[in-house]
Design goal:
alpha/beta, five-stranded parallel sheet, 186 residues, three-stranded mixed sheet, globular
Length: 186
């Protein structure tokens, strides 16, 4: 995870989380979650259950699929990319009716796939907000995005992708960027 500019100027607690278990440490607080959609999907529901307000600063979108009762991760890794992308698009459309929010949650060419049942539902709650503008810097009372808006928060949680991305999809008709790089090196 990259360090944000002026991270030392923020006066509140900054936490780095790879795994999250609610501990009532965010009760009544305004919390910022900074990270990819895959990592935020894991953290948001637990934090939103405690916090007064949660702002997700999404660094990149991810496809989010619902959990299935069987061994879904294994089946997901073996399923054709087109099928995974189709199911992910349908899941997003069914769960997120607001077209602008859905647009901001839709990944670009390549994206990780996370599996979570309540991310979209939690993000639609009135006290949760998704911000997709890049972060310019941290300021003493919060996070300033490049559009000049200062989002006041009490705590910042840095979300890490480790273990949250089940699979990565490539743009149709192209290899995944890492595979293209390996092809160039060889």
């Amino acid at each position: 995870m990259t360090t944000l500019r002026f991270a030392d100027t923020f006066t509140g607690p900054q936490l780095h989380r790879t795994a999250f278990t609610p501990r009532h440490e965010f009760t009544g607080q305004r919390v910022a979650i900074i990270g990819s959609g895959a990592a935020a999907a894991r953290l948001l529901p637990g934090i939103a259950a405690e916090a007064a307000r949660v702002t997700v600063f999404q660094t990149e979108a991810a496809w989010v699929l619902p959990r299935v009762p069987c061994s879904g991760a294994t089946a997901l890794r073996r399923a054709p990319q087109r099928l995974v992308r189709l199911v992910a698009r349908v899941n997003l459309r069914v769960q997120v009716h607001d077209s602008w929010l859905r647009h901001r949650l839709t990944p670009d060419d390549t994206a990780g796939v996370a599996v979570h049942n309540s991310y979209y539902r939690t993000l639609r709650q009135p006290h949760c907000t998704l911000v997709t503008w890049p972060i310019a810097r941290l300021v003493p009372l919060g996070v300033r995005t490049v559009d000049g808006i200062e989002h006041r928060v009490d705590s910042i949680v840095y979300a890490d992708d480790a273990g949250h991305v089940v699979r990565t999809l490539a743009r149709p008709g192209r290899l995944h960027p890492s595979a293209e790089l390996m092809k160039e090196i060889a």
